[in-house]
Amino acid sequence: MTKKITLLLSVLTMSVVVAGCNTVKGFGRDVQSIGEAGEEAIN
Length: 43
Fold this sequence. Notes:
43 residues
């Protein structure tokens, strides 16, 4: 029983970590594109 609970918690934790990494990566791309657009506007 405890092995099943541990496995479930591990899977849920990994899901949250993977989703968080994708979110941060996407946010980084958005910030980069905003910076590039601002740089082009200045030039």
